[in-house]
Amino acid sequence: MSSVAMQISYFHVPAEMPSTAQPEAAVVIDVLRATTTIAWALHNGAEAVQAFADLDDLKAAAEAWPAEQRLLLGERGGQKLAGFDLGNSPVAVTRAVVQGKRLFMSTTNGTRALDRVRAVPLLLTAALPNRGAVAQRLIDRQPATLAIVGSGWEGSYSLEDSLAAGALVERLQQMGSATVVTVNDEATAALALWRQHSSDPEAGLRCATHGQRLIGLGDHDDDFRCCAGLDQLDVVPTQQDPGVLQSV
Ligand code: 3SL
């Protein structure tokens, strides 16, 4: 029998991660919608996505970048921020808009989650459209310890992040067989949740409280369809410098 090669933990929000033992790899998930937007932006040729927890830090970094090569993405409470080029919709980051551009991005929870784990040596982001590509990268790199980190909503549990965490665990176990194991109950529960919703992920996203929040804001059908699309993209957003995600 082969020995265990990858131990997977899932944390609903970054604050649940133990500060004592840093994993070899982390995957941040914010299905609705930050990590879906990041995946589509890089797929569509964005030079990089640079993520910020703080808006003043974002503006300072963006100002130091050539104006014709940058876009500012800002979202709070599901809505685009005034003065920003884009909000946080994955269907807005088309090739015509983002190709060759660096996207300076701040969102309510997703980019804050990324900021919390930026010291992890191998840091990726995942969403449903690039779940298989991220799983393949992890199987190739074989970290001994993997933390999957949900973004949640302002410190609380988010169902949609757990769905995608379970989808990633499922794919990793399919690819890695007995060498990939879950080591906390959150990861095991996420897998069970995914199995309950995998035949209709969009319905799962819509019934989550943040799904309901977006429905309340109106006109998000295209976003739901995009965020629920499974295994459509080969892109693996990977932190290259602190906060800077590129497709490598
Ligand atoms: O919380 C976040 O980071 C966002 O993804 C929320 S929203 O989907 O843009 O409303």
Structure description:
This protein has 248 residues and is of the alpha/beta class. The chain has one domain (6-240): ComB-like (putative 2-phosphosulfolactate phosphatase, Alpha-Beta Complex), CATH 3.90.1560. The chain is 39% helix and 21% strand. The protein is built from 10 helices and 11 strands. The protein has a 6-stranded mixed β-sheet with strand order 5-4-6-3-11-10. Strands 7-2-8-1-9 form a 5-stranded parallel β-sheet, with helices on both faces. α5 packs across α6 (159-176), α6 packs across α7 and α8 (201-207) packs across α10. The longest helix is centred in the last third of the chain and has 18 residues, at 159-176. The radius of gyration is 17 Å and the shape is globular. The two termini are 33 Å apart. The protein binds (2R)-3-sulfolactic acid (3SL).
CATH superfamily: ComB-like
As an assembly, this protein is single chain
What share of the residues does DSSP label as strand, in percent?
15-25%
Q: Give me the side-by-side strand order of the main sheet.
A: 5-4-6-3-11-10
Q: Uncertain spans, ≥5 residues at pLDDT below 50?
A: none
Order of helical and strand elements = EEHEHEEHEHEHEHEHHHHEE
CATH architectural label? Alpha-Beta Complex
Distance between the termini: 33 Å
- Total helices: the number is 10
Mean pLDDT: 96
Name the structural class. alpha/beta
